[in-house]
Amino acid sequence: MKKLRIIAPALFVLALSTSSGHALQYEKMAIGNTSKILVMARGNINNGDTQRLLGFLLALPASDRVAGMIVDSPGGGLVEAESLAGVIRRAAFPLFVPPGGQCSSACFLLFAAAPSRFVATDALIGVHRASENGKETIAAKTATTAMIKDAWELGVPEQVIMKLAQTPANQKSWLSQSDFAAMRVSIVERGPRRAGFTEVHVVDRQQIEAWLALLSAR
To answer: Considering the entire predicted model, what is its pTM?
Structure first.
């Protein structure tokens, strides 16, 4: 598979989300008494998030084994999202979108890059065309074309790519059950509670346990 590549000077200003909130916040989540951990990434995708993720991973103890990533993001910078997607693809991190969470706009590249994708029953995955300062400029149309090419190379099915291409930048098309099936996305129902799992704030512990059970069964 070719390396994802849409970086060009004119594209650095592009975003797939009009939000300019805080950068992604990374958090280590221990899995019981094992050496496995999860990395949660929550927030908007901003410049520098890839380097911050790499720094976060390098700072982990040598004994830690990253079992996957939990991502909750409304999107952000397209170029930075592509860079993050490259990390996820090369590291082969499974990706889970948690209960009440979303992975939309630029975040979709992260979702598409994961070798295994899991979503909670109420999580949302959304796509739309690129924008530049909220407008579909010539540069934004170029970025949309590049993103579609990336999606093809990542194996995103045609029906999802069509949604991306046809949805205006100021709207979002949420992936349907048939889209999930085409992308081989696993929908995670709540599983039975098990002892030994650490608290994970607003993320539903039972659904993460069910996700890990699915991973173990693969």
So the answer is: 0.85
